[in-house]
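Quick question, first post here. What does this chain look like in 3D?
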Amino acid sequence: MLDDRKRKILEAVIEEYNKTAEPVSSSKIVSDYNLDFSSATIRNEMAELEELGYLEQPHTSSGRIPSSKGYRLYIDTIMKEKNLTVREKENIDAILQSDIAKFENIIKEASNILSRLTNYASIAIGPGMESCTVDEIKLVKLGKDRLMIVVLADNGIVKESIINCNEEIPEQNIEIFNNYLNYKLRGMNFRDIYDNINEYVEEELNNISNNIVPLIVELNHLLKDGDSNVYVDGTKNLLALPELKKSDALERFINIIETKDVIKELVKSGYDGNINVYIGQETSFEDLKDFTIITYRQSINDKEVGTIGIIGPKRMDYKKVIPTIKYLGDAIQQKINRGGEEDGRSKGKE
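> Answer (accepted):
Ran it through. Tokens below.
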């Protein structure tokens, strides 16, 4: 642990660097921050902070910048979070009060406002379904040759799709399909069904109607789509930042956004209901060394249903971003706990 003097100097360096994106000199701390320490003391303390790994010196003649380790200490023990304004809270609450049937859509809408409030790129990660089980399957006739298939998972998430059939499907066949699918598949794991779909249903139902083929194909598609979808919004907010003026940093950022592999891997290691902060070199991902990702995972009945978050430079306004994500994440979780998913559950059963 650092003594109080080092902590105050580290805080001043981080605050200054966050504003300017330029290495911070001891003279800048002396002139702009009322720390009541001599110039020589601040210079010596900054050198010691560098030796301890909390600061870095990009060039021999320049000032110093915070390291990932320095930012970690700042976030965990030094910084004081900013309070959201009444208007910011009202904007968040208004979105979450809207009648959004799918939880994944709530996550996407929340991500959009998160980008606007923070001026960083936001991420929204939809629910992964592979570990879920089928709670109910519902077939709804939309026309003489069109069906909607709705799959309700045990975590309350609804997946649906429209099926175009080759010929008109008699009502009695729809009822048979519906009853049989629920009899065979309710309570089964999505992945197990996908791996064994022919064994479970296709042979039996194919004897009733040739139209079972497109139905099974589409059901298979819904079950296979178990990987979490990652949405990124507000990337243009980052393109003007000085960190991305360097071609190598820009290349790494584009790789993170395009492949999304880093985001998915980090989310798997996070904790539900908590703010998870991943700073640069703290992780094993080379592409992330110039960036920070902050996430909040949502859950229903101990099952993950989605994640909201921010991606930006390590030089981030953590005092504003973290409480914003907290407020938004907590508000979404309260909506879930109050039965917000019941909207999706009832719409799927109409």
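The first strand starts at residue 55 and ends at 56.
The longest helix spans residues 318-337.
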